[in-house]
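[[Local backbone shapes]]
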Amino acid sequence: MKIATWNVNSVRSRVENVAAWLKEASPDVVCLQELKCTDDQFPKEAFESLGYNCAVHGQKTYNGVAILSKRPMEDVTPRLPGGDTTDDHARYIEAMVPGDKGVVRVGSIYAPNGNPIGTDKFAYKLAWLKRLNSHAKELLALEEPVALMGDYNVIPQPEDCYDPKAWMEDALYQPESRAALRRVEYLGYTDAFRACDPQPNQYTFWDYQAGAWQKDHGIRIDHILLSPQAADHLKRCAIDKHVRGREKPSDHVPVWCELEI
């Protein structure tokens, strides 16, 4: 089973790019983030014509997550558990997807950015990641293959950034943010990319400003975290960097892995 994650930064603006990559890469499951549209505005037809079922948790103008699957999904659940009833951000959707040898629980994640630090936005980021940690812990108790994938908006280590000093005042690189991501990993989740490729300076995001793409001034903030039952079946993981060089690209690129499930 080939599973992937991609922050598409407005799915309606990138639908042709997304469709082209789906044809090229042919993933079985794709988690999308930052849809920037409501459920009824999501371009389902474009993806259904390629053989994908669509589960969408959208929001007008902001946020929004989805899961595309070549196989029928079960137990589709929008919204991250926990938090208060006033939190209407569309940042999480989860589903069960059958493979040839078992079932994988997949979560599509769009964690808060959190900037500027020292504000309610940063506090919300940390609170949201704490909720994710609690849910990730509950999922481990099920003892089943789980893949929590998406834009975590966290730079894990210095080697995941072109210039750590440039990000010292950014919410994505704060000690609290990095510690929150580590706590999820310490529960027993594996960073699929790092498990397969230890080389530094490999990125999933390049800003549109200041020639970041041309200079390769990127950061790695899109991650696939696997439960032990999924990590045991991990075969490969890679970043499709070339997608960033296409016309009208997202500022993120797809990350994918293959599981023998």
In short: The two ends are 6 Å apart (CA to CA).
